[in-house]
Automatic annotation (TrEMBL):
PANTHER family, per database record: QUEUINE TRNA-RIBOSYLTRANSFERASE
Subunit structure, interactors included: Homodimer. Within each dimer, one monomer is responsible for RNA recognition and catalysis, while the other monomer binds to the replacement base PreQ1.
Enzyme class, broadest EC rank: transferase
Gene3D superfamilies in the cross-refs: Queuine tRNA-ribosyltransferase-like (3.20.20.105)
Protein name per UniProt: Queuine tRNA-ribosyltransferase
Similarity comment text for this entry: Belongs to the queuine tRNA-ribosyltransferase family.
Matching SUPFAM superfamilies: tRNA-guanine transglycosylase
Catalyzed reaction equations: 7-aminomethyl-7-carbaguanine + guanosine(34) in tRNA = 7-aminomethyl-7-carbaguanosine(34) in tRNA + guanine
Species name: Roseburia lenta
MF-aspect GO terms: glycosyltransferase activity
């Protein structure tokens, strides 16, 4: 199912076979929270820009449209017309992000919907049931994501509960995959390592979940307030204790530099809202750093966002025109910036894989970082 093809230091070049197709890693997963990439990006666009995996959100699809309705309609792949792998996160991050609207107990979490305030309960079993209804390729275990600033006692108690929840997720996933009417009976389960920025808690938790023989392992609870240096340190200390023959996923990270550093420390899977969110605000990524297309200096700039870029925006349109669209609040401006950014991320992952294949990841990383830091 998952095979490491090559290594360079801790960096891994691997391939993962799934029921919905093959994933070449390292890989960036495009974030489509409610079964769509924000910025009017279609499934055809996703194919065009080289997307391998699309990520959707359990909590958001549960509260809007509803997982039971999506199951009736044939599951998430059929619903959004996507024929490649989908990863669904478990709703655990909403435990962190909706902290004013939730109460955490041993059985699970009591929420108020951020849409209409109605009461929702989600525990490990409910999260697995929702993800099974969606029929995603990879389901994430239900966890709590403690703040990186939380005190040691809180983090210890939280991580212990997350481990107990993981055991419940595994049991429930096995039950659901055996049911007659389950859409994807080959749904995979990834566990999540937590522990804030306490390296000893992280390492101990990594050892405990490694023993549970899951389909993959994620490092969660980073990029939530700690410094980049703290994040890299935690990865250096923790990733070696996760199984090397299973995929490793760094959740919600990050910038192009974060991804390069993550790959160097043994990460296979990444996801982040940055490319689409920044694109919607006219901020675009290039090999020479990030550009703000709202800047006056691009008003008469007839070059593409990036010379030589094969994305749908750069193949046809100029910086001047895209800036005009953004200033005029035309949706096409946002859409072109989002397409460019997602292409940039997916193409960068392709370059990373090629560099690992050639045994030159260290050289590639150095050149890429230097170029992005130098600016135009």
């Amino acid at each position: 199912m998952y095979k490491v093809l090559k290594t360079e230091g801790r960096a891994k070049r691997a391939v993962m076979e799934t029921v919905h197709g093959t994933i070449q890693t390292p890989v960036f997963m495009n974030v489509g929270t409610v079964a769509a990439i924000k910025g009017a990006v279609s499934t055809d666009d996703l194919h065009d820009i080289g997307t391998q995996v699309q990520l959707s959100n359990t909590y958001h699809l549960h509260v809007r449209t509803g997982d039971k309705t999506i199951k009736e309609l044939g599951g998430l792949h059929k619903f959004m017309v996507w024929d490649r792998p989908i990863l669904t996160d478990s709703g655990g991050f909403q435990v962190f992000s909706l902290r004013g609207l939730r109460k955490i107990k041993e059985e699970g979490v009591y929420f108020q919907s951020h849409i209409d305030g109605h009461k929702i309960f989600m525990g490990p079993e409910e999260s697995m049931q929702i993800q099974s209804n969606l029929g995603s390729t990879i389901a994430m275990a239900f966890d709590e994501c403690p703040s990186s600033k939380a005190d040691r006692k809180y983090v210890t108690d939280s991580v212990n509960r997350t481990t107990r929840w993981l055991a419940r997720c595994k049991t429930e996933m096995a039950r659901l995959n055996g049911l007659e009417d389950t859409i994807n009976k080959n749904q995979l389960l990834f566990g999540i390592n937590q522990g804030a920025i306490y390296e000893d808690i992280r390492i101990e938790h990594a050892k405990r979940i490694a023993e549970m023989d899951l389909d993959g392992y994620a490092v969660g609870g980073l990029a939530v307030g700690e410094s980049h240096e703290e994040m890299y340190h935690i990865l250096e200390e923790t990733v070696p204790y996760l199984p090397q023959d299973k995929p490793t996923y760094l959740m919600g990270v990050g910038t192009p530099a974060n991804i390069l550093e993550g790959v160097e420390r043994g990460i296979d899977f990444f996801d982040c809202v940055y490319p689409s969110r920044n694109g919607r605000h006219g901020h675009v990524y290039t090999d020479h750093g990030k550009l703000n297309l709202f800047n006056q200096k691009y008003e008469k700039d007839m070059r593409p966002i990036e010379e030589g870029c094969g994305c749908p925006a750069c193949r046809t349109y100029s910086r001047a025109y895209i800036r005009h669209l953004l200033k005029a609040k035309e949706m096409l401006g946002m859409r072109l910036c989002v397409l460019h950014n997602l292409y940039f991320y997916n193409h960068m992952m392709e370059e990373i894989r090629d560099a690992l294949d050639a045994g030159d990841f260290a050289g590639y990383k150095k050149r890429k970082l230097e170029g992005m830091e130098a600016g135009e």
